[in-house]
Amino acid sequence: MKNHLVGPGTFTVLFDEADGADLSLPDAFQRIYGGDWRPLQPEGRPYVFVNFAISHDGRISFSEPGHMRAGDVTERNPPDRWLMALLRARADAVMVGDATLRVSPDHLWTPERIYPPDAASFAGLRRAEGRRPVPFHVFLSLEGDLAPEAEVFGHSEVHIIVATTERGSEAARRVRHSGRLDVLDLGRDRADLARLMRILKEGYGVQTLLCEGGARVYGSLLQAGQVDEEFLTICPLIIGNREVGPARPALVEGAAFLPGAAPRVRPISLRRAGDYLFLRARCEAVQQI
């Protein structure tokens, strides 16, 4: 890469058994990350990878006013933010649920927004890999409740795709966006995520899709068998949960799997930076229950 990477320091590799068939990371990125990351190439849909941060006890949010975001769990750890930016840089599309949009109305799901020091290098990586300057923003919303005041709707360079239902499509179409906004009606009461993935690949050319939340979106993707890999930051905080009041969500919510039908993950790499662990795992599909 021509641009000089700043980075957060280097990751310590504890083990790495990863493989893949797609583009290799440039050397400058590998020196920071401690190795390569080659995306998979599933047939008929994009490579779908998720990125979450959990507390030591498996929670993804404090669920306290003013402290709803993952940054409170990670304490805005620089290696985590750099890795998040790298994942976004290799995503043709980034998908989040409407709840994530509501708690982050001032956010854009781009590499430079999360790690500005290496904005030029991440932009160069996108160009080198033939990606759009800005990833598609895919919002999953069953009711079409899209927080119309969110900053993203004022950015004409962001092509927004709303994945919704028959009952949510009308509300979604009322949202004003300064750029292009497409509404996909994917079912009467729930969005058909397998169909969404086919549409994204065939209609929009999406080869890689990153999901950043929330827990219910992840659960729905797992139920639909649409997750290839998981990037999980394990943070050193213990958050706990309350008996009364808003629950503090775990990594997966809204989906309950039966014995013998639960998804499995296979750890393929583990890295460390300070007190934080960075796990990459491969997911095995499971049928809906």
Describe the protein.
The chain has 289 residues and is of the alpha/beta class. The chain has a domain at 46-242: Dihydrofolate Reductase, subunit A. Helices cover 25% and strands 21% of the residues. It has nine helices and ten strands. It has helices at 27-33, 70-74, 78-89, 98-103, 111-114, 119-128, 166-173, 193-204, 215-223, and strands at residues 12-16, 47-54, 93-97, 136-140, 160-164, 181-185, 208-211, 229-234, 265-273, 276-283. Helix 7 links the parallel strand 5 (160-164) and strand 6 (181-185). The longest helix has 12 residues, at 78-89.
| CATH homologous superfamily assignment of the domain at 46-242 | Dihydrofolate Reductase, subunit A
Structural class based on helices, strands and sheet pairing? alpha/beta
Helix content: 25-40%
Number of extended strands: 10
* Biggest sheet, spatial arrangement of strands: 1-9-10-8-2-7-3-4-5-6
Order of helices and strands: EHEHHEHHHEEHEHEHEEE
CATH architecture tag of the domain at 46-242: 3-Layer(aba) Sandwich
Poorly predicted runs of 5 or more residues = none
Distance from N terminus to C terminus (CA atoms, Å) equals: 46 Å
What are the key terms here?
10-stranded mixed beta sheet, 10 strands, about 290 residues, alpha/beta, Dihydrofolate Reductase, subunit A
